[in-house]
Fold this protein.
Amino acid sequence: MLLESVKLTNFSVYRGTHCLDLSVDPERPRRNIVLIGGRNGCGKTSLLEAIRVCFYGPQVLDGIAERRTYDDYIRARVNRNAFDDKNVESSVRVEFSYTLRGRESKFSVERCWTVVDGDVKETLKVVRDGVPLRDIEMDHWQQFLNELIPPGVIQFFFFDAEQIQSLAQDGDPGAYLVEAINALLDIDILDRLEGDLNVLSKRLLHETGGNEPKSIQDTARAVDEQNAKINIIKDQIAALQAKERELLGDRTQVEKTLHKQGVILGLDRKKLQQEVGTLHEAVRRASADLQELYASALPLGMIPQLVSATKRQLEAERRRKTWEASRAFADGHAKSIWNHVEQHAILQRLQHSERDALRAQYLQHWDGVLQQPPDAATRSFLGMSDLDEERVLQQFATLPKLIADFKALVETKTRAEARLAQVRAQLAKAPEGSPLQTLLQKLSELDRGLGAAQADQVRLRESLVDAEKKLKPLVAAHLDAMKSEEAHSLVARKHQLIDKVHNVIDGFRQGILTKKAKQLEGHISEMIARLARKQDLVRGLKLNAKTYEVTLIGRYGRTIPKQQLSAGEKQIYAIAMLWGLAQTSGRQLPIIIDTPLGRLDSVHRKTIVEQYFPAASHQVIVLSTDTEIDEKHYASIEKNVARAFHLEYQGDDEGTHVEQDYFWQSTQEAG
């Protein structure tokens, strides 16, 4: 990341609009310092705050001890002379380059505030390569900036040297500092991962409703009991069918006996006997045909209105599904065509807005190609597959014929039974006590037995249909229970995997913390060695991998309490720690340091100027007074200075102005 420029309007002591060019040439890495001089009260710290608040808005208060509200904070930083107008506008814009996913882009972040009657209204604008971020909703622009430059990280790169001595205090470094160091070293990624796992775990509990799965044993028992009832009915029907066959055999034997004994008197009696057989067979066939109709879709004929409504609903849902499938195919085809057309060289020469307009017109045209059917708003609640829909509609289509067949069979059976009763009455008129009468009585008893067996079969078949209907919801409940148990089992396995991942993360965290802590300890020790004087107390340090608590080591391996350090030594130590953190993180971010030499003696100042500034980062912005970077120090780093400015407070307009060059001489870029 490289800062290119900062523009301030009515911010703090900067009345009106002021712009500073902060750019450095990556091709000339030795000239990496931007030097901004200013006496006390001229706006150096305000410039640092402006850059911070531009990036982070309300989040900037997290690093300030005084917890004022954000509106109060902004009102306090709007140039006081600008309040002469009723409506006050203030803004900060920072431009920078950033390499994202292997591609370098130019970004512009501008945060504006309007103060109307004391109320503060803030707007944020983020531009990438001259175009506002389109692929990210405006409400998520701040999140995008936080991902580019995490707020917890920036305090180690943009800092006031006089306010970093808290790093040199004994004891626990504090939760805020530990969290920031974790973010800098990317340890916080593990915390976010564990947080995502916890969210996933809660979501899994929500999917199962937090309830125990339904008992498969209970639903299976209900299905088995109903199947047992069905089997009993089937056994009873089979017994009646066997009885019917037995009665038919007996009847055949009686008829043969009558024929052998020659007791059939006259042709009329023989015809009546034949007619009895014919009528009996007609009644049997009609009964059998009625049984088949009862097992078909005929019962639906009793609810014609519900059948009609169901048929209309099915047809409407089929039309809707057909339309949705056609629409999905058309939409996919349209987008595929557009993606192909969009690659054409002619469209590539158009602006993004023009291509977007053409794309909108094209998709709007496709929207009109497939109009929704009139009943597209019909709510889908049957949810049948195409095969089930086709079967149901076919059954509905057969209802008129089934009803007509039923009526015809009932009429045929009624007529046959009536005629059979008449014929049997005629045959019963045989002389009393004759062999014919006895055999005819036997035949009549067999016919009554056959009729009773057939009637019982009809009754049992109706019971069988009812029992099979009751079985369907029981089977469905059993399938639901099996799915529920499978879902709970899957969730349990996922929870086990989540626990394993937690364990892996914990193990990885310990390993990476130890590794990172060792690297950090080495880098900070190296930086202390580069910045400390020979007579300084500190010679090295040890870092606790869990708490980040630092133990300073002096001569002969002695532990040095931090309170024994002088103010200058504490500042040297704090700068070395920040330098080591930046080196360990590997992040290519610029350094902004305010009041870098205020508490240091001449030897330490020389070390910071000559050792730290040129090597701290690829871009180092130094905010200094004329007594910190004086002529002597300026001369020692002039070869490293890419740009120099000084801030001049002008009393006539009560505002700070940005002037080119440093206090004493013009800074020329190396040519």
Q: What stands out?
A: The two ends are 24 Å apart (CA to CA). Residues 216-331+384-491 form one domain.
